[in-house]
Known about the structure:
TIM Barrel; 240 residues
Amino acid sequence: MLIVNGDDFGYSNTVTDPVLAAYDDRLISSASAMVWMPDSERAAAAARERDLPVGLHLNLTVPFRGDIAPALARELQAELTTVFDAGSWNDSDAPPQAPDRRIADAVGHQLGAFRAQFGEPSHIDGHHHIHVHPAVLGCLPRDIPIRPVLRAPQDLKRPADRRDKLISRWFSTPDVCVGLQQIHPAFGGAGLDVLSYARNHTVEVMVHAQIPQERAALDTAQWREALAALEVGSYRALRR
């Protein structure tokens, strides 16, 4: 099965609208949404209207920009953004740099807000992949599927490392996740033949539809033909 997921849903109207357009055009099959951002509420309404499968795009790396974030959650977020940054997910062996309780509270705050707006999440992934940081993995609910560690196309068949094994033991998850720019010929990627891996495995392609070049790449005949040849679904199929 192939999952094509649009990230950052709800971050702003300039992100939400391209994700919705790509879903309406059947070029993606799933999305992950941020809470307490300027367009979160409108994104939630649009997702419910379409029955768009949406997961939580967990955010511990940038401040909340929406007006309705509770003061406690906003203050905790401000602290955690001094701990985690865009490169923190690479620290596969790093010890926790903040108390686990704070991370768990932040995850709980965002899950609660997501459920109130969007309903039950189809999955959890992370802004800047922060969900796979060792200090964060232990704070995620294990009954919700998560995105695996992003891989380069040439590494799809490499042996699982310690973190990969931990994720597959604790969570339901696709076998691999790759980025659109890593595989699409429009970016000089490895080629859409990589998607043939989805014939016998579950593969997620991470998409940022708000990037004009990515939106254009999704709208190519090559991409449409690739999707037509595969079973395309969402994380809903991975729920335990």
